[in-house]
Amino acid sequence: MEGKKADVKGKSADIIMQFNRPEGVHHMESLLPKSVKRRVHALKRLQLQCANIEAKFYEEVHELERKYAALYQPLYDKRRDVVSGAVEPTDEECEWHSDREEEDLAEELKKKAAVEEKKEDSATTEDPKGIPDFWLTTLRSVDMLSDMVQEHDEPILKHLRDIKVKFSEPGQPMSFTLEFHFETNSYFTNAVLTKVYKMKSEPDEVDPFSFEGPEIIDCEGCQIDWHKGKDVTVKTIKKKQKHKGRGTVRTVTKQIPNDSFFNFFNPVKVSPEDPMDEDTELTLAADFEIGHFFRERIVPRAVLYFTGEALEDDDSFDEEELDEGEEEDNDEEGDEDEEEEYDPQKGEPQPAECKQQ
After folding, report:
1. Which pLDDT score, from 0 to 100, does residue 110 have?
2. What is the SS3 assignment for 171-209?
3. Facing residues of 190 across strands?
C-alpha cells in the first residue's frame, strides 16, 4: 500500500507541474487516471447544467431590465423636455448644492441681485432655450465616442433631442434598440435613427464553458434619408482625366466614404457562413462595445457625462490600449499623405474599416 501511495503522490506532483506549464493545460485531462477522468466528466456535465441555469438567470435579468425601463422612462422623458426647453423646471426642482456651491453660496447670493437686475434692464440679454448642445457635449466628453464625431457632424448633432433604449418584448429574441430622436432639420428627413443589437444568452454548442453571460451577436442600422447634398458619410472628389487620343481633359466627379458619426447606423454586415478577417472582427467588437456603453452608461447617466462628473469613474483605456491607439493614429497620418494627392478637397483621411464598407 505504501508503494501505491507513493506512486499516486508522484503522479499528482507530475500533474501539478504539468498544469503550471501553459503548454500542458490542455493535456491535464489526459494525464488523469481513468477512474478520476470518469469523475471529471461527471463534473463537466454538472458545469454544463450550471451554464444553462446561468443563461436562464440572464434571461430573467433582461426581463427585469425591460420592467424597470418602463419606470425610468417618465424621468427620461422629463429630462428630454428640460433639455429641449419644452418644460422649465420649478425652483424646487432646480435646488442642488454641491460642496463647492455651498462654500461659494454667500458670494453667489451677493451677486445674484445685481445679475438679475442687469438682466431685467438689458433687452438684448440672450436666454438660451433648454440646455443647448446637451447631447453633442455628452458625446464629445467620452473618448470612444468623441473619436467618432467629426466637425461636419456637429451641426447635425445639435438637433439631437433624445437617445432612448428599447428592450425586446417578452417572448421575442433578446435584443435592445438605440433610438436617436432628432428635431426637424435640413440634413435628413428621419425623425428617429435606430440601431438594433441582437443578443443571445445561451452556452455555445461547440464551447459551452466559454459562456459568461449575454453577448451581442449582430446589429442592424437604418437607412438615413439625406437631403440632396447633405450626406456627410460620403465626400465628393473631382479628378481630371486626359483623353489619350484627342488630348482633351474632362473632370470626373466621384463619391468616396467619409468619416462620420453617422456611419454608426451603417454597421459592417457579415455572413455567418463566411469567416471574418481580423479587421472586421475588431470593427464589430468596437461597435458592440459602443452599443453597450450607450445602453449601460450614456443613456442612464447623460447629465453626468455632460458635466464631466462621470468621466472620473470611467477608465475606458489602460496605458497599453492607449499605446495601440497612438500607433493607429500614426498609420492614419500615413494614409492622409496619400489621399491628399487623390482628393484635393478638405476632408479627413479614410480609416481602413470605412473603406471596407
Report:
1. 55
2. CCCCEEEEEEEECCCCCECCCEEEEEEEEECCCCCCCHH
3. none
Judged by DSSP in three states, 97 sits in coil
pLDDT digits (tens, 9 = 90+) for 207-229: 788 787 788 888 999 999 999 99
Nearest Cα to Cα of residue 198 among 172, 222, 174: 174
Kindly list the strands in the beta sheet with 175-182, ordered across the sheet, starting from the edge strand earlier in the chain: 160-167, 175-182, 192-200, 215-220
DSSP string, 303-333: HHHHHTGGGGG-----HHHHHHHHHHHHHHH
| DSSP 3-state of 336 | helix
**Half-sphere exposure of 324 toward its Cβ, with a 13 Å CA cutoff?**
6
Map out the domains of the chain with their CATH numbers.
36-90+132-316+343-356 (3.30.1120.90)
Q: Which three cell numbers, joined as nine digits, stand for 261?
A: 458619426
Beta-bridge mates of residue 81? none
Chain centroid, CA 294 distance in Å: 6
Which residues are bridge partners to 325 per DSSP? none
Q: How far is CA 27 from CA 15, 31, 41, in A?
A: 9, 7, 15
- Residue by residue, DSSP assigns 204-262 as -SS-GGG--S-EEEEEE-----BPTT--TTEEEEEEEEE-TTT--EEEEEEEEE---GG
pLDDT of the residue at 24: 47
Can you tell me the mean pLDDT for 30-43? 88
How far, CA to CA in Å, does 33 sit from each of 6, 44, 47, 261?
15, 16, 21, 58
Query: Is 176:165 a contact under the CB 8 Å cutoff?
Result: yes
Q: Which of 13-22, 80-89, 165-174 has the lowest mean pLDDT?
A: 13-22
